[in-house]
Amino acid sequence: MPSLKETIDQIQPLKKEAMDLCQKKLNNLTKPPGSLGVLEDIAIQLAGITGSTSPSVKNKTMLVMAGDHGVVAEGVSAFPQEVTPQMVLNFINGGAAINVFCRHAEAKVVVVDVGIVGDFTHPDLIQKKIKQGTDNIAAGPGMSYDEAVKAIEIGIEMAHEEVQQGAALLGAGEMGIGNTTPSSAILAACIDLPLEQIVGRGSGIQDEALTNKIRVIQQALDINQPDATDGVDLLAKVGGLEIAAMTGVMLGAAAHRVPVMVDGFIASAAALAASRICPKVTPYMIASHASMEPGHQHALRLLGLTPMLHMNMRLGEGTGAALAFHLVEASTRALEEMSTFADAGVTSS
Ligand SMILES: Cc1cc2ncn([C@H]3O[C@H](COP(=O)(O)O)[C@@H](O)[C@H]3O)c2cc1C
Ligand SMILES: O=C(O)c1cccnc1
Q: What does this protein do (predicted)?
């Protein structure tokens, strides 16, 4: 399986020539130039990623990474930790929002245990547990540097396996009660903004708990002093096992020249860490939607990504990414199936 180092070395810039050819191809289709807006931007990005002016994203996989967080002991979430394995079972049984949206988008869902607390096992749950959740980041590092590398490499391995099986578009989703706290800490370490502008209510905490969450995140940053120039250090000290695995999915996708959909706030924290590990990864990313978590817009700005959808969503799991799969596929279908001015006998300007 490719190591983190080998994966980083494999990531190359987008192919400019294919992007120029794709722009020309789009301009010959029966529509005013540029009139499909962001769909045209995506088509060009996909051409640069794949090197083809007829990219297909029919085969899509959503990799849902699950892990727990010791920091929940500080009262940072509206829900108890046992909801993580309960929701993972729901994913396996096909009853969660991510299952519904992936069925609709004809995408495969793969669920991976990177660090769920407890001994929950299931034949359909990929078992890659590194440890029983992270340690409490408000008291010290969530995990060791080596454990963070291992978690990233699990994401790389999963991306590798899905691409080997034909996936042409990947999504990185997650489940982990408490994970908006480490995600906020990662972002806060990368940006010079007051925590009040970054930290949100996650799955739905009230005012008092929000004040406490901000205090806990400040304490995590003060105690751990994460190095924002080192994505692995960020993930190890104030991140999470499933967040690190999502970082790995993104790096792995880029190494294989496969586009990767960045979901909401937690995915954007994983993407930030990925970009600090290898800045060449971001051109392979597509941002699905604008999350209601206040930090999300700042994370996307740092990444240079623009979200496609504005749906007031704040769920995670990969749900926004699954919705956006439709749009990415629509852009490839336009490129492939629309008539040219010449073929349709339509006069161009
Ligand atoms: C039933 C349920 C289903 C979810 N699906 C995703 N999340 C989302 O909420 C969690 C993060 O929010 P916080 O940091 O406030 O705990 C993550 O598991 C995320 O995936 C859920 C949360 C709940 C309660
Ligand atoms: O945007 C997200 O990913 C998100 C927001 C709130 C709770 N869980 C996930």
A: Catalyzes the synthesis of alpha-ribazole-5'-phosphate from nicotinate mononucleotide (NAMN) and 5,6-dimethylbenzimidazole (DMB).
* Mean pLDDT value across the chain: 98
CATH topology of domain 4-55+334-344: 1.10.1610
CA of 177 to the centre of ligand 1 (A): 5
Which residues, at least 6 apart from 20, have a Cβ–Cβ distance to it below 8 Å? none
Atom of ligand 1 nearest to the CA of 98: 5
Find out whether 86 and 104 touch, Cβ atoms under 8 Å: no
- Asked if 177 and 83 count as a contact pair (C-beta separation under 8 A), the reply is yes
pLDDT, tens digit, 9 for 90 and up, residues 33-80: 999 999 999 999 999 999 999 999 999 999 999 999 999 999 999 999
Show the tokens assigned to 215: 């205090």
Distance CA 289, CA 268 (A): 11
Please confirm, yes or no, whether 17 is among the known catalytic residues.
Answer: no
Catalytic residue among 40, 242, 317, 329: 317
Residues with CB under 6 A from ligand 2: 180, 202-203, 263-266, 291, 293, 296, 314-316
Name the CATH topology of 60-327: Rossmann fold (3.40.50)
Ligand 1 center from residue 222 Cα (angstroms): 26
What digits encode the pLDDT tens for the residues 117-152?
A: 999 999 999 999 999 999 999 999 999 999 999 999
pTM score: 0.99
Q: Which residues of the chain form CATH 1.10.1610.10?
A: 4-55+334-344
